[in-house]
Amino acid sequence: MQKTIMIVDDSESLRQVVNIALSGAGYKVLEAKDGVDGLAKLDGCKVHLIISDVNMPNMNGIDFVKEVKTLAKYRFTPIIMLTTENQEYLMEESRKAGAKAWMVKPFKPAEMLQAVAKILAP
Do the Cβ atoms of 34 and 57 come closer than 8 Å? Predict the structure, then answer.
């Protein structure tokens, strides 16, 4: 069965890079431009993993994670934060909100695919 991953980032070029890497590895990809858009697209469809930026307009990544964790259907969906930020307090905030992992941009697609495979491993 094909697994679905949602990428939430306000950078269209970054969403494209992530989409190409994930699609190439056989994943189905949903894209959202910010937390508000991401929540709107979590409409009951099965999402196996969410990759979210931290700094976005309308709703930042940490608030997005908190909101996702209030939704019964997505409460246990793993979330990776993908961001230019590397401050310890932001990592701690996202962990508290419910994020599983943290990756710093720029990233190597192969490293991201490794992290995704590890989190999605049965």
Answer: yes
SS3 26: coil
Most distant CA pair in the chain: distance in Å?
37
Distance CA 118, CA 32 (A): 23
pLDDT tens track for 58-116: 999 999 999 999 999 999 999 999 988 888 999 999 999 999 999 998 888 999 999 99
Instruction: Quote the DSSP letter at residue 48.
Output: S
Report how far residue 101's alpha carbon sits from residue 92's, in angstroms, rounded to the nearest whole number.
11
Q: Which domains does the chain have, with CATH numbers?
A: 4-120 (3.40.50.2300)
What secondary structure does DSSP assign to 76-94, as a single string? Answer: T--EEEEES---HHHHHHH
User: Taking the mean position of all CA atoms in its chain, how far away is CA 43?
Assistant: 16
